[in-house]
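PT: before anyone asks, these are the final sequences, not the draft ones from last week. 212 residues across everything. Please model them as a single complex and drop the result in this thread when it's through.
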Amino acid sequence: MKAKSKARFEARAKIIKAMAHPTRLMIVDELSRRERCVCDLTEMVGSDVSTVSKHLSVLRNAGVVRDEKRGSKVYYTLRTPCILSFMSCIETVIKSRAEEQLDLAK
Amino acid sequence: MKAKSKARFEARAKIIKAMAHPTRLMIVDELSRRERCVCDLTEMVGSDVSTVSKHLSVLRNAGVVRDEKRGSKVYYTLRTPCILSFMSCIETVIKSRAEEQLDLAK
DNA sequence: TCTATATTTGGCAATTTAGCCAAATGGCCA
DNA sequence: TGGCCATTTGGCTAAATTGCCAAATATAGA
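LR: through. Structure below.
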């Protein structure tokens, strides 16, 4: 049971780690709206294509996004839409933190 | 607007990064049930106290947990309960991934 | 005050990550 | 086939992260 729960936390951490980067969050955010090819995302992000491609492979390996080749382009989509609720939790943490600091300032 | 959204993604990434570790996830999971002192968590986790203390400081700096000193012990609590919905999203990703691999195996 | 317990901090070695360039791969079309 | 476009991969360096030990700090109690 101990080992099993350890494996569970490792599996979760792997996914969370994949999202733990500003650029990858931006990508996830964009993909929550519509599918995008690497070229679209590269333009959005403003880094080298190879960098964006590597970020995408991190997300793909973690199972956060899915890729589909059509013609010479590769389109990425989110695998599940729950990412939005995920983000709303993060925003709650940010807000809670801000409020607490406001209290301290009084 | 561009810089603003960049800062937003960085703020979010900071919090997500704080959770992106199996041990810290285990801690967050435990704290979602009840408050715990460092000694309790150290026993649970099974690492050196200093290691656990550093994990806790990562979570504290990110605003995920709050600490309160009482006597010679320091008790940690979750700052917001939404972490649970956060985890359920992660589980969805894991499940979606598993199902897709099952399909491939057919 | 002296000691034991609880926690944090400093420091260090090993590992992982990020981002760039250059090169390889794959598809499209003249 | 040859050349162009889209994407991935290899390789490299710089920076960040992890986990341990040792040492510092704080509190409670004899």
